[in-house]
Amino acid sequence: xxxxxxHDGLKSLRLHSxxxxxxxxxxxxxxxxxxFDDRLGMMLDREIVARSNRRLAHRIKHAGFKHSSACxxxxxxxxxxxxxxxxxxxLSSCRWVYEKQGVLITGATGTGKTWLSCALGHKACMExxxxxxxxxxPLLREMEAARETGEMNRMMEKLIKPxxxxxxxxxxxxxxxxxxxxxxxxxxxxxxxxxxxxxxxLPVNRWHETLHDPTIADAILDxxxxxxxxxxxxxxxxxxxxxxxxxxxxETDNKETMRGKxx
Length: 263
Hints:
263 residues; alpha/beta; Rossmann fold; five-stranded parallel sheet; 11 helices; 5 strands; 52% helix
């Protein structure tokens, strides 16, 4: 008798998962043996899980990962890949994000820096943290455009706000004085307030030369390097095997790229 009013009421409150669970309970033959608390608990569990999944999907979507399918569970730890399992397992806990520390990933082209960066970011999303992934080259172009249109403050807020900021492909081009100052502001604002993950083909001891002014370079690297853990890819006994961090990565990424071009 109360079925429709209750169902409609749940939907009007936007408790859609609870409404579906309420409907499904009618299909359970022995539903009458369940107590009111049991039935309500099952409906609440459904709503809680659904909302958690929606929030996770929202965080992943807005992070903007290049490799949306990358995840820590798919890393292949075979010995010839040169990966430090204990370090990566430690990073998987996302304690470093909670403690507002950084991670620096270096290695030659094809060693999986971007994929691993996305995997760590994906894990942070799963743990409830907000993440923003940006490639340096387009980011620098957007900074120049934002400066010309007077949107620089708003753009800097977007880069400073998330729990984890991922800057991919650092050092592909040398930053001019204005870009260096922007990076100093990002490093300064995030220092002790949020985590920063950076990847680069250059070893960390050469990052100084990617910045225009030595004094600014010292200030930026002082805030980034000393509080970060380092991952050096491709330094194992067989560097060529590091070209794939997990089986099938190249095929998966190529498919994602083609889908992106088709949209």
